Amino acid sequence: MSALLPKSWNRRLVDLNIEKLRTADIEWADMVMATGMLVQKDSLREVVKRAKALGKRVVLGGPYVTSTREQLPPADHLFRGEAETTLPQFVEDLARGEAKEIYEAPERPPAGSNADS
Predict the structure, then answer these.
(1) Choice between 60 and 116, residue whose per-residue pLDDT is larger
(2) Residue 10 phi, psi dihedral angles, 5° rounding
(3) At 57, is the secondary structure helix, strand, or coil?
(4) How far is it, in rounded angstroms, from Cα 75 to Cα 56?
(5) Is the pLDDT of residue 115 over 80?
(6) Which residues pair with 78 in a beta bridge?
C-alpha cells in the first residue's frame, strides 16, 4: 500500500504482530492507517481509540472492515475491498479537502497487481 501513497508522504510501519505501538508513533503521524482481520478486531479498536484520543485522522481497511458492516471502530475513512483501486482516489480527494467516509472497491484488482505478490 505504501507504494500507492504520494512519494512526498513520510511513512512509518508498525507491525503489531511483532512490536508495540508507541504513543510516539501516533504523535508523529498526521494520519493513522490501519488494517486487520476479524481476529485482530480488538487490537484494531485499541489503535483507533488511541489515535482518536490524540486527535489523529484514522483510515481503516482490510478483511475485518470489508467483511462486517456493524461494530466498526469510529474511523474517519473506511476502505472496503481492495484498496489498490480506491486509495489513489482517496489521496486526490484528501488533497482537495473532500475525502469521503467510505471507499468501496467495485471489484478485485487485476491479476498480477501488487495485491497478488
Answers:
(1) 60
(2) -80, 145
(3) strand
(4) 10
(5) no
(6) 60, 102
